[in-house]
Write a structure and sequence with these properties.
Layout: E1 22-29, H1 33-43, E2 57-63, H2 65-70, H3 75-78, H4 83-87, H5 92-98, E3 118-124, H6 127-144, E4 147-154, E5 174-175, E6 189-190, E7 211-212, E8 224-225, E9 228-233, E10 239-248, H7 250-259, H8 264-275, H9 318-322, H10 334-342, E11 347-348, E12 351-353, H11 363-368, E13 377-384, H12 388-399, E14 429-431, E15 438-440, E16 447-457, H13 460-466
Parallel strand pairs: 5-6
Antiparallel strand pairs: 1-3, 1-4, 2-3, 7-9, 8-9, 10-13, 10-16, 11-13, 12-13, 14-15
Length: 470
C-alpha cells in the first residue's frame, strides 16, 4: 500500500473533529483578484493537515470552479477538471441528474445560485474559541475586500442523532492506508483513491485528478503526475467536496407517521421502516421487531442472505438506497452486488444545523412538541474523487429513481424528491409483506434543498501553488 502524505492532506479527509463540536461554514466571493489571493495566502498556513489532531481549532479551504477561474488559473489547468465540477451543481442538466426540480430547484435556494468562489470550514473546541477565530478571519476579510456571502452555523447533536431523532453516521468507509496492517477482509475497507486524489482507486487506477503543464509550475511546487511525466499533479492529496444544505421538515415527518399509524409506537415503527434503522441505530435487518441497544453501532450486516425480499428492512428504505451493501436486484450474485455498491461509496463529513425540536431527540417527545417555526437540517458534506460515479450516481440511480429495487413509484422516503404532479410519481413508500405489500402514498417532501455547490478541496501544496503560480 502507498503511504498517505498526511502532511499535505487537509485533515477533514481523515478526521471528523468530534472533539471540536462548534463549527461554521463561511461562503465567500472575491472582489479583486490580488486581494483575494492575499486573503488565501494568509489563510493557507493555518490550514490543518491530516498529520495533526488539533485540540482547539481547525481550518479547511475549498474552491468552486468559478472561484478558480476568478483567480485566473490558466485555461489548460481549468480544462483539466471534471465536467461536473466545471458545470456546477445548479447547472440545468445537473438539476435533472440530482432531482433538484420543483420546490428543490436552485431558484428557490438560499445560496449556491449566485457567484460563489470558495468556502472556509472553521471548527472550534467551544463557542468562545470559534467566535475568537471568526473575529480574526473577519478582520482579515475586511482588510482584503472579501465578501462573505453566508455564514452557516453547524454543530453536533446529542447522542450522534439527526433532527428526525435517529442515530446517524454509523456506516463510514474505512481507508485502507490508514490501517496499520492490510485488513483480513478487504471488502470492508476502501483504497485511498476513492476519496483522495493521487492514489489508486477500486479500479486499481490512479484517481482522476486536475493537472498542470510543467512550464506553468516554474517554482516546482507540485509533484509529477504518476502516470504522465509531462504533467504536474494539481489534485494530489486533494478531493472534491460536495456540499448540500438540506432543511429537515421535522413536524411534517412525524405528522405523516402519526397519520398513517395506530399509535405513537406504530409511528416510530413506520419511520424506522423508512430509515432502515431504529432511532437508537440498531438495524432492522438484525432486529426487525424492536430495537436492540446492543446493536446500536452495528454495521456488519448484509441483505443478500438474510433479507433479500426486504421483509425486515424494506428495499426502498433510506439506508438500503444510499448503501445497498450486498444486494442489488440488477446484479446476479452477492459478490457482484458488493462490488457494485462499493464503487459508489462517499466519505461523509456533514453536520446538523439548527436547534432540535425536542432537546432529548426522542421520537415520542418530538411527536408531542409543537412546531416552533425554526429551521433545522443537515449540512451534507461528502468527499469523493469522482463526482459522477460516486455522489451523482447514488443521487440519481438510487435515491431518486422511482423503480429502484423493482419498486414502482418510490423515491427515497426520507431525502428523496417526492413528485406528485409531474410525469412520474415518486411519492409512495412500499413495505414488502406476505402475501401483499403495503403501500403508503402521498409522501410530502421531508427535506428541502436550501443550497449546494461542488468544490475542489486541494492538498496543501496545491493551495500554495494556487496563490503563487505566476
Amino acid at each position: 500500500m502507498n503511504k498517505l502524505e498526511k502532511e499535505d492532506i487537509q485533515g477533514l479527509l481523515i478526521r471528523g473533529y468530534g472533539n471540536l463540536p462548534s463549527a461554521k461554514y463561511l461562503l465567500y466571493t472575491g472582489t479583486q483578484r490580488e486581494q483575494t489571493l492575499e486573503f488565501i495566502r494568509q489563510l493557507t498556513p493555518k490550514i490543518t493537515p491530516a498529520s495533526e489532531k488539533p485540540a482547539n481549532e481547525a481550518f479547511h479551504l475549498a474552491f468552486t470552479y468559478e472561484g478558480l477561474a476568478f483567480l485566473e488559473l490558466p485555461a489548460a489547468v481549468l480544462d483539466s477538471f471534471c465536467r461536473e465540477f466545471k458545470e456546477g451543481m445548479a447547472e440545468l442538466h445537473r438539476q435533472f441528474v440530482l432531482g433538484d426540480t420543483g420546490e428543490n430547484a436552485p431558484q428557490h435556494w438560499d445560496w449556491g445560485n449566485e457567484s460563489l468562489h470558495f468556502i472556509l470550514l472553521v471548527y472550534g473546541k467551544d463557542e468562545n474559541q470559534l467566535n475568537e477565530t471568526l473575529a480574526d478571519i473577519r478582520q482579515l476579510s475586511d482588510a482584503t475586500g472579501i465578501t462573505e456571502l453566508h455564514a452557516l452555523p453547524t454543530g453536533l447533536l446529542q447522542g450522534q442523532k439527526e433532527h428526525f431523532g435517529f442515530r446517524d453516521d454509523i456506516s463510514r468507509p474505512i481507508i485502507r492506508e490508514l490501517l496499520p496492517d492490510l485488513p483480513q477482509e478487504p471488502d470492508t475497507t476502501f483504497p485511498a483513491g476513492e476519496f483522495i486524489m493521487g492514489y489508486d482507486n477500486l479500479y486499481n487506477e490512479l484517481a482522476p485528478s486536475p493537472t498542470v503543464p510543467p512550464q506553468m509550475d516554474p517554482k516546482n511546487k507540485l509533484p509529477e503526475h504518476r502516470d504522465n511525466n509531462n504533467l504536474k499533479d494539481l489534485g494530489k492529496n486533494g478531493s472534491y467536496l460536495v456540499f448540500r444544505q438540506m432543511k429537515q421538515n421535522v413536524p411534517t415527518f412525524w405528522e405523516y407517521m402519526k397519520a398513517n399509524s395506530s399509535d405513537p409506537s406504530a409511528a416510530i415503527g413506520l419511520a424506522s421502516k423508512m430509515v432502515g434503522r431504529w432511532p437508537d441505530g440498531s438495524p432492522l435487518t438484525l432486529c426487525p421487531f424492536q430495537p436492540d441497544p446492543s446493536l446500536s453501532d452495528a454495521n456488519d450486516f448484509g441483505y443478500w442472505e438474510d433479507d433479500k425480499a426486504g421483509l425486515k428492512c424494506p428495499i426502498g428504505s433510506h439506508i438500503r438506497r444510499t448503501n445497498p451493501r450486498d444486494h442489488l436486484v440488477t446484479e446476479k450474485s452477492r459478490k457482484d452486488s458488493q462490488e457494485m455498491a462499493a464503487k459508489h461509496r462517499m466519505l461523509r463529513k456533514g453536520r446538523p444545523y439548527g436547534p432540535p425540536l425536542s432537546p432529548e431527540l426522542d421520537p415520542e417527545m418530538i411527536m408531542q412538541s409543537p412546531d416552533d417555526g425554526q429551521e433545522r437540517g443537515l449540512h451534507f458534506i461528502c468527499l469523493v474523487t469522482d463526482i459522477r460515479r460516486q455522489f451523482e450516481f447514488v443521487q440519481n440511480n438510487w435515491v431518486n429513481f422511482h423503480k429502484f429495487g423493482g419498486l414502482e413509484n418510490d423515491a427515497d422516503p426520507v431525502i428523496g424528491n417526492h413528485y406528485q404532479n409531474e410525469r412520474r410519481k415518486t411519492d409512495s413508500f412500499s413495505i414488502p409483506e406476505y402475501p401483499v405489500r403495503k403501500v403508503h402514498p402521498n409522501l410530502p417532501n421531508f427535506t428541502h434543498i436550501k443550497g449546494g455547490a461542488y468544490f475542489f478541496f486541494p492538498g496543501i501544496r496545491a493551495l500554495q501553488y494556487l496563490t503563487d503560480y505566476e
